[in-house]
Known about the structure:
There is one protein chain. This protein has a single domain (about 1-84), classed as Alpha-Beta Plaits. The protein is about 35% helix and about 30% strand. It has helices at about 15-25, 55-60, 75-84; strands spanning about 1-10, 30-35, 40-45, 65, 75. A hairpin with a 4-residue loop joins strand 2 and strand 3 (about 40-45).
Amino acid sequence: MESEVVIVKDMTSLKDADTVLNALLGVWGIDRAEINLEKHQALFTYDERMASSQDFEQAILDSGFEIETSQPEKLNLTERRKSN
Length: 84
């Protein structure tokens, strides 16, 4: 499993967050998705055998939002679990 965090431009309301979340959840291979509206972040975990980060970036773009950086932050799941 791979995890990534992307910054979503202009995601300011709960409706925006729901739109982005639903877009991510619609991508084949998704395991989990979360939105941090305060930080404008979308975090998602997926099976890299079924999808790639580009699939998720495209889903966000198709939902009407832009991504702040083209280089999403990849997270090591072990490191992430230790930090929680």
